Amino acid sequence: MVEDNRRWGFEEAEDWEYEAGRRATPPPAQPPPDDADACIGVDASGAVSVLVEFDGRVRAVRLAARWRDSIDQRALDGAVLDAANDATMRALSRSVETQGDLAVVPPAPRSAPVDETPLTRADAERLFAAVNAELAMFTAGLDQAVNAPVRAESRGGHGVRGIAQSGQVVRFEIDRWAHAAPNAEMEGELAEVLRALRDRGTPATRPTGSAIAELQALASDPAKLLRKVGLA
Question: Model's pTM, two decimal places?
Answer without folding.
Answer: 0.58
